[in-house]
Amino acid sequence: MDARLLVSLSGITPRALSRCTDLAEELDRRGVPLSLLVNPSGQRSTAALDWVRQRARMDSVLLHGYKHEHQGTWRRRPEFAVLPAHEAGLRLTAALATMDGLGLRVDGFVPPRWQASRGTLLALHQHGVSLCAELSAIRDVRSDEVYRARVHGFGAGERAEPWWCLAVVLGAARAARRGSLVRIAVDGGYLVRQGVRQALLDAVDIALHHGAVGNTYPEVLERPGAERHSPGYRTERADRTERSPVHSAAGSSRGSTRTSVPSGARLVNIP
């Protein structure tokens, strides 16, 4: 089975626009589409917005949070990481209305730092958003099926040292050889670093060398013949928590963990 290559671009600002344009041209020459992660509250530049609209004719546009505000006081978390369904729904309503006002059709949702609470997933379903891309999986919100693949990239919270650049390239090669999803992400602000730009293109090239096909995030949900499994998919953190003595003790009154997925979710295994 051929691997799928997904490249996402965030941080499309006036300062980074020339570098974003350069990356898009490089990927066009390789036949690889982009998934554009757009923060509606951060779109104040006419030039950047016009560029996104132009690219939307061939690429996909994913809603990337709303205001990117941190939640909590003691341990600050990304915007949608811990929100209950009601509050997440309010933010999604405002974000989707803003995107509509900007003339951009939303193909899915990517939470800041790739972290979405269970309440956020419920709110997405209520708003008719079918896709949520998380750190370790891509989720079909309608059916709760998940496609397991970790994102590799450069941006907020990620490193840009030479060893990390090499790790991204090697990770892309390994996933492509297995025929898995290859997910690469970059913030436009990081493209000013020549090492980051080159590492990203090297990761794309080696994935293509191993037979990967460039896709956008929405195209993953349309993939035919994917193997489905039950029981439901759970994150690695939830599995570790459930194996701990506290959670495995007989008669424990605690229910599912915060990072677990309710029963009924199905794993779509891409080899």
Describe the protein's topology.
Blueprint: E1 4-10, H1 17-30, E2 34-38, H2 46-55, E3 60-63, H3 85-101, H4 118-126, E4 131-133, E5 137-140, E6 145-148, E7 151-154, H5 162-178, E8 181-187, H6 194-209, E9 213-215, H7 217-221, E10 227-229, H8 236-243, H9 245-248, E11 266-269
Parallel strand pairs: 1-2, 1-8, 1-9, 2-3, 6-11, 7-8
Antiparallel strand pairs: 4-5, 5-6, 10-11
Terminal CA distance reads 8 Å
Instruction: List the helices and strands in order.
Output: EHEHEHHEEEEHEHEHEHHE
Shape designation: globular
Radius of gyration from the alpha-carbon trace, in angstroms: 18 Å
Task: Name the CATH homologous superfamily.
Answer: Glycoside hydrolase/deacetylase
Helix content: 25-40%
Descriptive account of the structure:
- The chain is an alpha/beta fold and 271 residues long.
- It has one domain (4-231): Alpha-Beta Barrel (TIM Barrel).
- The chain contains nine helices and eleven strands.
- The chain has helices at residues 17-30, 46-55, 85-101, 118-126, 162-178, 194-209, 217-221, 236-243, 245-248; strands at residues 4-10, 34-38, 60-63, 131-133, 137-140, 145-148, 151-154, 181-187, 213-215, 227-229, 266-269.
- Strands 1, 2, 3, 7, 8 and 9 form a six-stranded parallel beta sheet that branches. Strands 4-5-6-11-10 form a five-stranded mixed beta sheet.
- Helix 3 packs across helix 4.
- The longest helix has 17 residues, at 85-101.
- It is globular and about 45 Å long.
- 40% of the residues are buried.
